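Handout, page 2. Input:
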Amino acid sequence: MKHLFSLLTLLMLAVTAAAEAPYRHVVFFKFKDSASTEQVQAIEQDFVALARKVETVKGFEWGTNVSPEGLNDGFTHCFLVTFADKAGLEVYLPHPAHGEFVSKLKPLLDKVCVVDYVAR
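Output:
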């Protein structure tokens, strides 16, 4: 019985930790060769502005690829958006500001990769 209680306690702690863990939304962009430096810089600024417009965004950072490994498959930009939970993402995705950003982005984008995860 003591072992069962210990196991249940560990399980409850794990569930609580998962519920409190941040929800991460990672976006990688590969721009079209035809996208100018100015257009790419405008997208960078627009993404920064987007993160400020949606109240469920709890953290935001971004950068360009500097890896010497050459394994980026042409993706040059990484954006990490943090939400308190999945519900935050569910507010963000249909948000009008997100839709406006995507409409500006799409004509310049060659490829996109999105990975969401719960931080551990």
